[in-house]
Amino acid sequence: RLPSNHDSWKRVVDRNEGENILFVCLKMIKTVICFLFVHLGNPDAAEFRQKHKTRLKRKFQCVFEGIAKAGNPTLLNQIYTELYITEGGTSDVNDEHEVRQIETASRKPNRPETIIRQEDIFTVSPGRDEPIRTVLTKGVAGIGKTVLTQKFTLDWAEDKANQDIKFMFPFTFRELNVLKKEKFSLVELVHHFFTETKEAGIWSFEDFQVVFIFDGLDECRLPLDFHKTTILTDVTESTSVDVLLINLIRGKLNLLPSARIWITTRPAAANQIPPDCVDMVTEVRGFSDPQKEEYFRKRFKEREQANSIISHIKKSRSLHIMCHIPVFCWITATVLEDVLKTREGGQLPKTLTEMYIHFLVVQAKMKKVKYDGGTEIDQHWSPESRKMIECLGKLAFDQLQKGKLIFYESDLTDFEVIIKDASVYSGVFTQIFKEERGLYQNKVFCFIHLSIQEFMAALHVHLTIINSGVNLLEKRQKKDHHSLKHLHQSAVDKALESSNGHLDLFLRFLLGLSLQSNQTLLKGLLTQTGSSSNTDVETVQYIKKKISDNQSAEKSINLFHCLNELNDLLLFMHAHPGLFSSFKTLVSQVV
């Protein structure tokens, strides 16, 4: 606000007695300019706002569904399917494996919930008196949080919704991480990412309705310590980016209380923001059953093909549950489209391992045709492709052990995967591993989804024991523990030891890869096979023994999923009717 008289201006100068008087005057002048810009009108204001919207439209109107930016763009408005978003919950941490969270949610009985449309994220619901300043939106990886923020921004930029908002500034924590050692004021940070605001001479936001979006809190590498931080109230005062964000999120008594803040995160990182800094918690649940069908009908225009795919997914409960996750819908669509074209009366993939093997094969075919000048009927596993997959598998396993989903250049220094190779891999296997570039072309690498990383990690562990006899799950190699049987047993034990199910999906993939039928699909990548029917039988017996040991419901369900990946669950049900009857409810969650 502008000081109203001479004495007020004098007090402003006195408060800054220790500062350079020229600097104080400059701050006053900027405040005056902004006041005039807002209250007396600026002929360029509408033009500037339109320029800002045009830039955001260009940035968000196209999406690269699961594909790196080298892929073919798709218009967001054409493929966007409404997501199931609910109000309520807390910012408490949930560090369970995210597939387990999805499966647990699918078992809960339907109960009344407040459903929110994405355009109403800041709308005050009936019976609520206080305005909503800060929203925290939770959701598992691949559930659609980023696309949700992009659609929200695009609708505003296209004048479709929320036109009371004057400016919208979307950030990702991936971009902000790169500025960890830099210093900015809030105004300078906005100028840094949105240069049109600097060109327009905007040095204050108090008189605008502004929304800041921060996507991907779980990827934040800034030290967000809300209990020990400098208090900041001046939008033109420079500090570290972490202090800036803390004060902006606190808001009410700190930085720019008039702003609205939207933060998205995976559940495990939700507690980084103190509850008293959040006005509303929402959760993205992904696709409801009707929304799954809508997605596949948008993807496959031919009605009969869409019906066939939807029918197949409904027959497999594990696939149907996973399709709550939009990224898995995309993986499924990619695989089934290829299999329906190329199969000769064979079965469609029914298990997760089959689905992900087919997905990997599709990518190898694409590389052979697009980069190697081959045809779809050629052998798609070249020595170069095998090396790429081996390197990506090693990276996936190493980073999975560290709990990392995204990797900066510094994370890859201890790896065979040097930066140059990583860039090549992301350009070739664009739908498995991707490279993103920040504002100044800083490279960030990631697998397109946690489940892809877990599959690649399991493939690496499987290949390693077959090719070299090394069990990567044991720190000390024992002479009698280098067989596939011992690898499987140690993997089962480690998964059961985990309280939050972090190895659940990895275990399913690792066991599924041992099936002879799945190894046949990977012919050419696997130079030798390491499984025998005897190994599978011993693994199945070991799992059945563990099921009989009265595990928790979640652990038992995952063991049933493991039997399903080994194509043994139905056999188990028929061979052990007494034991099956004890677990009938749990088994029904799998098949």
TrEMBL record:
<protein>
    <recommendedName>
        <fullName>NACHT domain-containing protein</fullName>
    </recommendedName>
</protein>
<keyword id="KW-0677">Repeat</keyword>
<dbReference type="InterPro" id="IPR041267">
    <property type="entry name" value="NLRP_HD2"/>
</dbReference>
<dbReference type="InterPro" id="IPR041075">
    <property type="entry name" value="NOD1/2_WH"/>
</dbReference>
<dbReference type="InterPro" id="IPR029495">
    <property type="entry name" value="NACHT-assoc"/>
</dbReference>
<dbReference type="GO" id="GO:0005737">
    <property type="term" value="C:cytoplasm"/>
</dbReference>
<dbReference type="Pfam" id="PF17779">
    <property type="entry name" value="WHD_NOD2"/>
</dbReference>
<dbReference type="Pfam" id="PF05729">
    <property type="entry name" value="NACHT"/>
</dbReference>
<dbReference type="InterPro" id="IPR051261">
    <property type="entry name" value="NLR"/>
</dbReference>
<dbReference type="InterPro" id="IPR007111">
    <property type="entry name" value="NACHT_NTPase"/>
</dbReference>
<feature type="transmembrane region" description="Helical">
    <location>
        <begin position="21"/>
        <end position="41"/>
    </location>
</feature>
<dbReference type="Pfam" id="PF17776">
    <property type="entry name" value="NLRC4_HD2"/>
</dbReference>
<feature type="domain" description="NACHT">
    <location>
        <begin position="133"/>
        <end position="269"/>
    </location>
</feature>
<dbReference type="Pfam" id="PF14484">
    <property type="entry name" value="FISNA"/>
</dbReference>
<keyword id="KW-0812">Transmembrane</keyword>
<keyword id="KW-0963">Cytoplasm</keyword>
<keyword id="KW-1133">Transmembrane helix</keyword>
<keyword id="KW-0067">ATP-binding</keyword>
<dbReference type="GO" id="GO:0005524">
    <property type="term" value="F:ATP binding"/>
</dbReference>
<keyword id="KW-0472">Membrane</keyword>
<dbReference type="InterPro" id="IPR027417">
    <property type="entry name" value="P-loop_NTPase"/>
</dbReference>
<keyword id="KW-0433">Leucine-rich repeat</keyword>
<keyword id="KW-0547">Nucleotide-binding</keyword>
